[in-house]
Amino acid sequence: MSTDHRVLGRLLDAAERCGCAHLVLVDPDRTTPERSAELARECAMAGTDGILFGSSTPLERDPAPVLRAIRSRYEGPLVLFPGSSGQVRPDVDAVLFLSLLSGRDPRFLIDEQVAAAPRVLASGVEPIATAYLLVGSDEGGSVARVTGTRPLPVAPASVVVSHAQAAACLGFSLVYLEAGSGAAMPVPASLVREVAAATPIPLVVGGGIRRPEEAAALAAAGARFVVTGTIHEVGSAVGPFTEAVHLPVPALP
To answer: Residue 142 and residue 66: Cα distance in Å, rounded?
Structure first.
């Protein structure tokens, strides 16, 4: 049974040191082992702070070859980003233990978590309690399709803020604002700024980020972690995004 939070602590240390940490999401159904190894090598060279591994849809093939390819080239934190309890596996460093607080379907609020918890604790994989909020368009990408959940509107900001504050009061370690895989637009930086100012736990922001400038704007707005994924599947280099996310650290007087 995992009794500590070493992986979360390592990630939070990276966010503190760099101003904001960069995580790259690898979907084993959309990435070959060869491309995964190359992405992992890019992450290692760029100083990317962690790799998320998983899919929001049921896996169509064995993810083990992709996971082994990543392990062969990257020594940083490897964190499972599961789409269901069935995707829990022991050969990762931690798992984002997600609860879809933006929805009201008990399956994604608690049922999947009850199914996953025995496997997580038996494996010794570190669970990172994460409130998952879909934000943005009515479509919301693959997560919205799988869960039947409509994203929270970006305006008024108070709707997302109150959900993030509820996550803090419930004891979650992270709040993940998700625009959806391949979303047309990322979560607005203005919304991130308001949520960050009103919420005492770190924000993770992902979905629809296609340019380093967009990643930098989210980091500057108060995101502690910025996640990119789909853009790298089509060949965009990791390095410029990591560099954009890592905010300049003020020099000591």
So the answer is: 21
